[in-house]
Amino acid sequence: VGTNRMALEAAAEEARRLGYDCRIVSSCCDGPTADLARRLLEEAKSVNGRVCVLAGGETTTVVRGSGRGGRNQEMALVAALQLEHIAQPLVFLSAGTDGQDGPTEAAGALADRTIASKARAMGFD
After folding, report:
1. Is 19 exposed, middle or buried (0-12, 13-18, 19+ CB in 10 A)?
2. Cα–Cα distance between 5 and 54 in angstroms, integer?
3. Are 74 and 34 spatial neighbours (Cβ–Cβ below 8 Å)?
């Protein structure tokens, strides 16, 4: 049986092997999902060079209206909206170690600085 900490340490080991400066923020993050997304981006922006910022935990997401999704998809959405205003070439991945993210088939989501504008061009707001 694995733990969240073990998953983070394995990811950090691989990131370091690939040449990234790796930082584990915490293995027990909680609170609003959007707040953690912004915190992780701030951590990544504070580093010059190749960086991998890792965190784990159970944040909270409030689905409004008829929306669907989970905390990982919200985190990537928040990141996408922030990344389009950041000059650094950052990529943000939020994924569940259990392979699920809310009531969807996705296990998470990926964002970079182009995703938000591409979504708007497709009619998503």
Report:
1. exposed
2. 10
3. yes
CA distances from 53 to 64, 84, 85, 101 (A): 29, 19, 19, 20
Return the CA Rg of the chain.
15
Residues 6+ apart with CB under 8 A from 69: 61, 63, 101, 102, 104, 106
pLDDT at 31 over 90: yes
For 3, counting Cβ atoms within 10 Å of its Cβ (0-12 exposed, 13-18 middle, 19+ buried), the class is: exposed
Q: Quick: pLDDT tens for 49-104.
A: 899 999 999 999 988 888 788 999 999 999 999 999 998 899 999 998 888 888 88
The secondary structure element, H or E, covering residue 49 is none
Residue that the structure tokens 């951590």 belong to: 43
Which residues touch 9 (CB under 8 Å, ≥6 apart)? 24
